Amino acid sequence: MTIHRRAVLSGILGSAAAFGLPRITFAATEVQRVDDLIARMTIEEKAGQMTCLADAFRPFNPPNPQAGIQDEKRLSEEIRKGRVGCLFNGIGVAGARRAQELAVEHSRLGIPLLFAGDVIHGLKTIFPVPLAEASTFDPAFAERTARAMAVEATAAGLHLTFAPMADVARDQRWGRVVEGSGEDVTLVSLLSAARVRGFQGRDLRRNDSLLACPKHFAAYGAVAGGLEYGSIDISDETLRETHLPPFSASFSAGALSTMAAFSEINGVPATADRALLTDILRGEMQFRGFVFSDYTADEELIAHGYAEDERDAARLAVLAGVDMSMQSGLYIRYLPELVKSGAVPMGTVDVAVRRILYVKMAMGLFDNPWRSLDEDVERTRFATPAHRELARESAGRSIVLLKNSGILPLDPAQSRKIALIGPFGEDKDNVYGPWAFYGDPGKGVDIASGLRAALADPADLTVVPGCGADAAIEGGIAKAVEAAKAADIVLLALGETQTMSGEAQSRTTIEIPAVQQALADAVTATGKPVVVLLRHGRALALHDGVANAQAILATWFLGSEAGHAVADVLFGKVNPSGKLPVSFPWESGQEPFFYDRKSTGRPVVDNRTEYRARYTTTDNSARFPFGHGLSYSDFVLDNLKLSDTAMRWDDTVSIAVKVANKGSRRGSEVVQLYTRDRVASRTRPIRELKGIERVTLDPGESKTLRFSLTRRDLEFVGDGNRRIAEPGLFDIWVGQSSTGGLHAQIELYAAAPGANTPN
Ligand code: NOJ
Fold it and tell me: Is 317 helix (H, G, I), strand (E, B) or coil?
């Protein structure tokens, strides 16, 4: 008999409808099996299910190579005793089979292991870093690349990825900006949900379905000063309005696990925060999967000054709602005694174990513990030509043309001397990006190789590093200047190494390292036309020789096909269509900087007008705003039409705009809808993104795009943490970035009984 999940899992994993996963069903025998297991498990075995340890069978665990049980023999013993439920950050089928065999065939209860890992932007085929791919503003495309990553990851014996990062990154000094989808709640929500769908596919039981783990719950992107592992002081409203929605969207898309953030919120570390992990996550947000701690984060409660000792830390974490402890081993060490002494109720442990077992069941591990552990599949799924092709397409779409005086695109057939100058011209070590541990070193295409492959005569290209990423090369700048003088055009490959962003790579400034800036200044002083190719994992504050170049391309970390994609865009094979998911401020000191900020009582006019919310030294605008990105086509928007300028309570207003390609090339534009609530019982941001529409047009072609707005889109979190809309005037902009655009207004009328009145 097959029982629909809705009937069986109420209160455990929630309804199928809540997850949007229509095909998950459990047989009565499966339900019985979970119940029987829980009844038979000792407290040690329960604590084991709630423990995830670094994988010593196929040791990778790159960021922390010395931690945990390093020895396969010792870890084997733990698995045999049922003291581990999950291994993480190892890849390879053979090792995984050895571990799974111990769990399934040699442990008392035979519960299969879950294999997790950080597959953030690819396994063997490395796709652009998530921030780069966010520039596509294209959720459907992100879903496709996530699917490809899942196919490779599951072929390598993984069941779950610690991704997507659904944190809204509000400060570019934070190194983890690179791992997410930028600064805006709507964009991050759309992309996170799309990635969950892509990773998981349509059926969790399939061999190539990779469970998603949206992280880091919650508000990790709001760490003060952009300091990794830091603290967050945040209002309930901002938490709910800016930081929780991407998680809700990910859960609605089907994610069955999440990870508590390392950080503390308002004085309580997330790992010990019952209000956050239980009341909000499970009560308000209806999450029914299981919660990982981050890496040793339970143990770190001691350093936070929140737990007295390890035992206390384990107690606080489990009571808060952390179901799976990552790497510290605290649960296995302390839960048995904590339960025996009554400090932790057995019921709390049972609920956690039940959540974990049901997720294992949902992905078919009980039926087939060998799913995703097939050596034949492993041999055929890595870095296939189709994946490389997709990576190249993704990389091309992720590039943002920040500035173009008309110098781009270059004609590949025209013979001219090109000098490729800068530390990243021929560099292969910084092509992938910071979260590509499993990629084969040196297999990414560097810029020089990409250019040579595209040029009619590769001898037209001269490559000179000029300096290292952070250190001078003796005589380097002089040689670079010489090469620039001898060339017709200069390409300056500058920016950050991949170790300058990512976990634990917070920076006080978001600038190009001084030695590279000096190189750029010297090269631009030659007067030769310069195109800057930026490499970076965050928004940057650009200056002088870099900012003044004739053209600038934001190329982030583009992965395996980086060099080809850069050449595709430079030579016009790909018409750039990327849009910035993060604002590029003028100066580092403007951080935290995001476009959806508040007006203040004294809105800034410019940096000269006194007694305004301004910095005396810098315009507090962006050099390149959120949503900005040029094309080789020339898109013009006009004819903005609203179906009505009055919106009654339950109305939908449709907004139409005509987009025309007045250029001479086929290209794509991302048209963006923003609103501003003029007067509200809580001050509202000066703009909020409400919709994106991508359109591809031939030269001379035009199309009418349509957006729709309802009251729901105009809601915000008001008193009592309720989402409310308030009647009154709203500005609307439809444009090509978060600044400018065609403007209109609508008025929302309160017609609903009991609706709020305007203040
Ligand atoms: C710590 C990071 O914060 C988290 O994002 C990652 O998934 C874990 N380490 C596991 O590597």
Answer: helix
From ligand 1's centre to the CA of 203, what distance in Å?
26
Question: DSSP for 570-593?
Answer: HTTSS------SS-EESSGGG-S-
| C-beta 435 within 6 A of ligand 1 | no
> What are the Cα distances from residue 159, in Å, to 118, 162, 223, 256, 410?
11, 10, 30, 12, 44
What percent of the chain is predicted at pLDDT more than 90? Answer: 90
CATH of the structural domain 635-748, one choice from 1.20.58.410, 2.130.10.10, 2.60.40.10, 3.40.50.1260: 2.60.40.10
407: pLDDT strictly greater than 50 = yes
Q: Which residue's CA is the nearest one to ligand 1's atom 9?
A: 295
Name beta bridge partners: 653: 709
Q: How confident is the model at residue 644 (pLDDT cuts 50, 70, 90)?
A: very high
| CB-ligand 1 contact for 300 (6 Å cutoff) | no
Tell me, in angstroms, the distance from the centre of ligand 1 to residue 365's CA: 24
295 ligand 1 Cβ < 6 A: yes
- pLDDT, residue 28, reads 87
Superfamily for domain range 389-590: Glycoside hydrolase family 3 C-terminal domain (3.40.50.1700)
**Residue 294 is among the residues annotated as catalytic for this protein:** yes
Contacts of 404 (CB under 8 A, 6+ apart): 550, 551, 630, 632
138 lines ligand 1 (CB under 6 A): no
For 309-321, the pLDDT digits (tens) are 999 999 999 999 9
Is 294 near ligand 1, meaning CB less than 6 Å away? yes
Residue of 61, 91, 118 best suited for mutating to test ligand 1, as the one with most atoms within 8 Å of CB = 118
Chain segment 226-240, per-residue pLDDT in tens: 999 999 999 999 999
**What's the pLDDT score for residue 484?**
98
> 353-371 burial by CB neighbour count: b if 16+ within 10 A, else e?
bbbbbbbbbbbbbbeebbb
User: Which residue intervals of the chain bear CATH 2.60.40.10?
Assistant: 635-748
Residues of the chain with CATH 3.40.50.1700: 389-590
β-bridge pairing 702-710 and 688-697: unpaired
Question: Looking at 55, 273, 294, 596, which residue is catalytic?
Answer: 294
Q: What pLDDT, in 10s, does the model give residues 64-84?
A: 656 667 789 999 999 999 999
How close is the Cα of 59 to the center of ligand 1, in Å? Answer: 16
The 8 Å CB, 24+ separation contacts for 29-37 are: 30/361, 30/366, 31/3, 33/361, 33/366, 34/354, 34/357, 34/358, 34/361, 37/109, 37/111, 37/357
